[in-house]
Amino acid sequence: MLLSHSISSFGKYCLFLSRVFNRPNRWNVFLNRTIFEITKLGVDSIQLVIIISLFIGSVIAIQMQLNIASPLIPAYAVGLATRDIVLLEFSNSILCLILAGKVGSSIASEIGTMRVTEQIDAIDIMGVNSANFLVLPKITGFILFMPVLVAFCIATSFLGGFLVAVFTDIISVSRYVYGLQAMFNEWYVWYGFIKSLFFAFIISSVASYFGYYVKGGALEVGKASTNAVVTSSIMILLLDVILTKLLLQ
């Protein structure tokens, strides 16, 4: 029963995407809505990303130093481990799990409210592809701005570890900075950006799907937001395993 329901939902999701990815009727309206969504979904998330990344970067540096304190391990390994953890997982996978809660629930509740108040029905009656009109700017805007959020996450995470080195005696600043530079692999940066684009698509499209097909009232909108966050998180973790195997093998 669960398997058949999952297959049915996935098929419905694919049909929904086929409606979303059509040529916009008016490009100027699409561009204006995309810019608006970039501001709403992306720019408004910068503050959250900076705060979380700053503290997580600090915690990673502290825990690395406490757990690898050994004369056999070079002191700069703290900076190196902090850098690789941030680049490989935190700045993309963990960040997107956090954004699934903020951005995903926002998209699902917004579109779900439009559905239960019959605003989407009114758009359809006017002969406009409501899925394309409402959802495509959200997906496009969030995907376009996602690399910016990743860049902020990387920079502030490194800054968090740097502040730990400056204001504590856990590790010296010079060794931390050297660790950030040691044995640097440029592909790790691109790897993080590539994964974040896939995750941004998952968050925006899945949340839009759950909001678009809400039936009922305010209670169902809340349930749709919860289901959107849970489903997005599961799909992000699953896709993380697949992309890691493909991009780092």
Main attributes?
9 helices, mainly alpha, 249 residues
Report on this model:
With 249 residues, the protein is mainly alpha-helical. It has one domain (2-248). The chain has 9 helices and no strands. It has helices spanning 2-20, 27-42, 46-67, 77-116, 119-125, 130-167, 173-181, 186-212, 218-248. α4 runs parallel beside α8 (186-212), α6 packs across α8 and α8 (186-212) runs antiparallel to α9 (218-248). The longest helix has 40 residues, at 77-116.
Beta strand count: 0
Percent strand: under 5%
Query: What does the radius of gyration come to?
Result: 21 Å
SS summary, helix count: 9
Q: Please mark out the parts with pLDDT under 50 across 5 or more consecutive residues, or reply none.
A: none
Question: How many separate domains?
Answer: 1
Separation of the first and last Cα atoms: 36 Å
Q: From the structure provided, what is the oligomeric state, counting identical versus distinct chains?
A: single chain
Secondary structure class reads mainly alpha
Biggest sheet features:
none
Q: What is the mean pLDDT?
A: 90
Helix content: over 70%
Helix and strand run = HHHHHHHHH
Which term fits the overall shape?
elongated
